[in-house]
Design goal:
alpha+beta, 3 helices, seven-stranded antiparallel beta sheet
Length: 139
């Protein structure tokens, strides 16, 4: 599992105002080319699905499995024997917010995903944490 934590000098609400705007991630994050909703429009909820395109990676369809506005969410993609679970957690601290981003690969092909993508995924997650923190701290 890849986990990146970042202390942010902003409230959880300020961080969530960026983190929770999934369809705007391509505008905010250099690690995301596009996030497009799959299916009916509406508020994000458990079961919402998104097609995510990132530089140097195959497009992946993620389904939201946990949605807690203001405190975090998890989404999952399944492809070629690999389940990718990405979690995004916010917790209040005395100085602001602890942002925790994690990716875990499971399934029969997880060993190959780990071998091929761990370095890139770690760089992406670190850059995403830095970007979300910077956006929230500038508010």
């Amino acid at each position: 599992m890849i986990t990146v934590e970042r202390d942010v000098r902003a409230t959880p609400a300020a961080v969530w105002s960026h983190l929770g705007e999934l369809e705007r991630w391509a505008e905010m994050l250099p690690t995301v080319d596009s996030v497009e909703r799959v299916g009916a429009p509406g508020p994000v909820a458990v079961g919402s699905r998104f097609l995510v395109r990132q530089p140097g990676l195959a497009a992946a369809e993620y389904e939201v499995t946990d949605w807690r506005p203001g405190s975090g969410f998890t989404w999952v993609a399944n492809a070629a024997g690999v389940r990718t679970e990405a979690s995004h957690e916010l917790s209040a601290t005395a100085a602001g917010t602890r942002l925790s981003l994690a990716i875990e690969w499971t399934g029969p092909g997880a060993w190959l995903a780990k071998a091929l993508f761990t370095r890139k995924a770690r760089r992406y997650v670190e850059l995403e944490a830095e970007t979300f923190a910077g956006l929230a701290e500038r508010e």
